[in-house]
Write a structure and sequence with these properties.
Elements lengths: L3 E7 L5 E5 L1 E9 L5 E6 L10 H4 L5 E7 L7 E11 L5 E7 L1 H5 L3 E2 L3 E7 H13 L9 E2 L7 E6 L5 E2 H11 L3 E9 L2 E9 L10 E5 L19 E8 L5 E7 L4 H4 L5 E5 L6 H17 L5 E3 L19 E6 L14 E14 L5 E8 L13 H11 L8
Parallel strand pairs: 10-14, 15-20, 16-18
Antiparallel strand pairs: 1-2, 1-5, 3-4, 3-21, 4-7, 5-6, 6-7, 8-12, 9-11, 13-14, 16-17, 19-22, 20-21, 21-22
Helix pairs in contact: 3-4
């Protein structure tokens, strides 16, 4: 059984307020997206610390998770919901989210121009401007590495662009990924925005995930042809004449050449004013829908030996070799696994820290697209959200 500690801190100072005995339902993290934590607090317990309400204030408090013997946080986020539950309001239900969600609520309100700037310097300029505002400094550091591609871009304060939208749009036309990690020094917690191009953990060796083996059940590989069009129309911004930019992309050398009927879809890129970028984003959307319109999920078998895999071994972005043999994926005549691929990587995880810690992994395509939260979200919803955030496979210069 893995031990957990739940620590609460002030969002602006990072200073520890209190440790509370939470009952965690689940917590999650994903590449370039917002992770969630849900759980309850038994507030009627006579041993409950008196500072529990001050420690769990929504919008004000950080929730930090320490897992096992590691003193550094395994997960961190800001408390967003807190409501009484249970008969006689004996418990409090708490929801927290990673700081990507916070940047989704912050807007660029002052003109910001970057000329010939590395893309990661643009991201740092956005974060720096927002943290210079009173009440807006979460002390977030940003990694100092460079992307390698440059751009000239202006954000007008009057447009009130959301910070997370600005970052995601940069990633759409020049592949990169990000996540937020946490460090603890004494009783102070500090977040860091980690930027990586073309993606996180791309230089690491793949880990093997197998059923039967270190997976608790066969892989979940839903297949829905309705979410895999082989022709896509991209609609961009309206030009000076009022007509929007249009881009058409079709799988002419793949499914259409093989005899499949044409299945069409349309994607709105209303923020796109450049035809070349629109063409790239439309083609990338088509590639993603064809190659990775379903994101397999797998559940790890609880480790029985020190050599077994656990969550601490599985960083975001880690490539995997995924093999499975079951009635849906029967073994080949030569005994090979029915499903065997090296085109997957860990793009998200959800943990339910009960008596036997349950770890579920989302295995997105090796290109490193954004993946959905693993709980309570359909593949169709993921595809619709991906339309907005799809990125170009090749880095632009």
């Amino acid at each position: 059984m893995t031990d957990y500690r739940y620590l609460f801190a002030d969002a602006l100072t990072g200073q520890l307020i209190e440790e509370l005995p939470l009952d965690c339902q689940s917590y999650s993290q994903q590449i370039s997206g917002v992770g969630q934590w849900t759980g309850t607090l038994a507030i009627a317990d006579p041993n409950m610390p008196t500072l529990w309400k001050q420690a769990t204030l929504e919008k004000r408090s950080l929730l930090m998770i320490q897992r096992g013997d590691n003193p550094q946080p395994a997960w961190g986020g800001i408390v967003m919901k807190n409501r009484p539950t249970g008969t006689g309001h004996t418990t409090a239900e708490i929801t927290a989210e990673t700081l990507e969600g916070y940047w989704g609520r912050r807007k660029i309100k002052q003109d910001l121009t970057q000329t010939g700037a590395d893309l990661f310097n643009v991201v740092r300029a956005i974060i720096s401007q927002l943290q210079a505002i009173t009440g807006g400094n979460l002390r977030m550091a940003v990694t100092s590495n460079l992307h390698g591609s440059t751009t000239t871009i202006t954000y007008l304060g009057k447009d009130r662009t959301r910070a997370l939208d600005a970052i995601n749009r940069l990633a759409e036309v020049a592949s990169f990924e990000y996540t937020i990690t946490w460090n603890r020094t004494g009783n102070t917690f500090t977040p860091t925005l980690v930027l990586a191009a073309p993606g996180l953990a791309t230089t690491l060796d793949p880990v093997s995930l197998e059923f039967p083996g270190n997976l608790a059940a066969p892989i979940d590989t839903p297949s829905d042809g309705g979410d895999a069009p082989n022709a896509v129309t991209g609609i961009g911004s309206s030009g000076t004449a009022g007509a929007p930019l249009i881009s058409e992309a079709a799988d002419t050398t793949g499914e259409l050449a093989a005899g499949y009927p044409i299945f069409e879809d349309e994607i709105q890129f209303r923020d796109e004013t450049d035809q070349t970028r629109l063409d790239a984003r439309t083609q990338t959307a088509l590639n993603a829908k064809l190659a990775d319109h379903t994101v397999p999920t797998v559940e790890l078998r609880p480790p029985e030996r020190d050599t077994d895999l656990n969550l601490g071994d599985l960083v975001l972005g880690l490539p995997v070799r995924l093999r499975c043999t079951c009635p849906y994926h029967p073994a080949g005549t030569d005994g090979r696994p029915g499903y065997d691929t090296t085109s997957r990587r860990i793009t998200g995880w959800t943990v339910a820290p009960k008596a036997a810690e349950k770890v579920t992994l989302a295995l997105g395509g090796i290109t490193g697209k954004i993946t959905p939260p693993l709980a309570d979200r359909s593949v169709a919803a993921y595809i619709r959200d991906l339309d907005r955030r799809i990125r170009e496979l090749a880095t632009r210069t």
